[in-house]
Amino acid sequence: MTAVVSDAVAASAATDRLKLTEVFLSLQGEARDAGWPTVFIRLTGCPLRCTYCDTAYAFHGGDWWSIDDILAEVAKHGVRHVCVTGGEPLAQKRCIGLLQRLCDAGYAVSLETSGAIDIAAVDPRVSRVLDIKTPGSNEAHRNLWDNLGLLTAHDQIKLVICSRADYDWARALVLEKGLHQLCDVLFSPSKSEIAARDLADWIIADRLPVKFQMQLHKLLWNDEPGR
């Protein structure tokens, strides 16, 4: 009987684990919560290969953590904001349970997701920061457009702009689909491809109803991992 119970406990623990690349405290560098001290939970793995990806180190490797251990680690840092990111966190199905547990624990939780995976099961208390991939990412064909119908004012849409052609594509998308009426829409310049000032000027010239943003953590710490 003892062996049977032990096996059951081990099986339960195995189904409660996620593969993580890192957990760290920094400032949120993007989106609505930019500037807040935030614990980042970076899950390992991503099915996309965007041209501008700056976290390719999270594609492989990582360590298995139980959800209980993740929450204990988050609690050590003593801040309210938690961001679950990747990689693509929703590529691990147990991410849904982690998000719920974080919300239950009273954290202000955001999820950074590629927009290529169904977000319907994500706890509504989570602010879903949904990427829409532009043509310049080479992954625009992966956009799951049904996700747009699931967004609320609590969520956010992010587009990384790689060129003037990307901007024109994104501008048309915002206006044709009324994205700004769904939630905040954020435009970011791809660091290595266009000047931030150019993107800012284009947005101003068009009076486009989107927020310009730059990656605050990159300005402060460049590409240092864990910051």
Automatic annotation (TrEMBL):
SUPFAM superfamilies: Radical SAM enzymes. Binds 1 S-adenosyl-L-methionine per subunit. Binds 1 [4Fe-4S] cluster. The cluster is coordinated with 3 cysteines and an exchangeable S-adenosyl-L-methionine. Substrate binds at L27, Q28, G29, R42, T85. Mg(2+) binds at T55. CDD domains: Radical_SAM. This is 7-carboxy-7-deazaguanine synthase. Catalyzes the complex heterocyclic radical-mediated conversion of 6-carboxy-5,6,7,8-tetrahydropterin (CPH4) to 7-carboxy-7-deazaguanine (CDG), a step common to the biosynthetic pathways of all 7-deazapurine-containing compounds. The keyword 4Fe-4S applies. It is an enzyme of class 4 (lyase). Its EC number is 4.3.99.3. NCBIfam families: rSAM_QueE_gams (TIGR04349). Residues 33-227 form the Radical SAM core domain. One of its GO terms (molecular function) is 4 iron, 4 sulfur cluster binding. [4Fe-4S] cluster binds at C46, C50, C53. Pathway: Purine metabolism; 7-cyano-7-deazaguanine biosynthesis. Homodimer. It comes from Luteimonas deserti. Belongs to the radical SAM superfamily. 7-carboxy-7-deazaguanine synthase family. GO terms for biological process: tRNA queuosine(34) biosynthetic process. It catalyses: 6-carboxy-5,6,7,8-tetrahydropterin + H(+) = 7-carboxy-7-carbaguanine + NH4(+). S-adenosyl-L-methionine binds at Y52, C53, D54, G87.
